[in-house]
Structure formats: C-alpha cells, structure tokens
Design goal:
Number of helices: 2
Number of strands: 0
Structural class: mainly alpha
Shape: rod-shaped
Order of helices and strands: HH
Helix content: over 70%
Distance between the termini: 165 Å
Radius of gyration: 59 Å
Length: about 160
Amino acid sequence: MALTEEDITFIKAHMGDWLAEQSLARPPAVYEIELRERMVRVEEELKHQRELMREGFAQMDKRFTLAEKRHEELREDMLARFEQVDRRFDQVDKRFEQVDKHFDQVDKRFEQVDKRFEQVDDRFDEMLRRHDRHFLWLIGFITTVGGLVIAAGKFL
C-alpha cells in the first residue's frame, strides 16, 4: 500500500504532536530540547566512533607495514636459501663431472685392457699355428724315421 501526497502531508503536520505525546506529556519545547541534546550526544558518539575507527585503521596500517617488512625478510631469507641450494647443486654438478671424467678414464683403461687381450689372443693364435706346424713337422719326422727304421730292418 503506497502513501499518497495527502498522507505524507498529514504525517508531516502531525509528527511533532505525536512525538510530544510520546514524551509523557511534556511540552513540545522541552521535547525539542531533549531531541537536540540527544542529537548532540549522538554526534559526539559518532565523532568518538570515527576517532576509534581512525585509530583502528592506523593500527591496521602499522600491522600491514610490519607484515610487509616480515614478508620481505622472509623473501630475502628464502632467496638466500635458494642461492645456497644453487651453490650445492653446482657442487654436485662438479662432482658428477669428476665422476664422468673418472668413468672416461676407466673406459680408456678398459680399452687398453681390451687391446692387450687382443694382443694376447693374437699371440695365442700365432703360438697355436707354430705348434700346429711343429706338430706336423714332428709327425713327418716320426713317420720318416719310422719308415727308415722299417726300411733298414728289411734290408738287413
């Protein structure tokens, strides 16, 4: 239900009387003074609340400043730790490079050992060939001597 202009005008005209009636039969002038005193108290309380809010905001600013400072200190600390970790990784990388060099040296030694084994294999092959030739010569010699012995035995 919406108010009409007449209703609003009527309310405005009688508002003071109604408020005066509510003030326990005090005259409207006394009621107006009381209202003004209340308004002054409300304004003072609002002013006090505003001051409290300003103090609260100032304290919050201080806390934010401290939090930012702490955050920056933590950030710097973390950066320092990351730098230490980076240095440690560099050291580990250097150690791995040393291990790689050592493995390369071991590989070269194994290659040398492989060459030596190949040389030994070649020597064994040569020795086997020599033994085979000597064996064939020995068989030929034994056969020749045996044949000569048998031939000499027939002639005699």
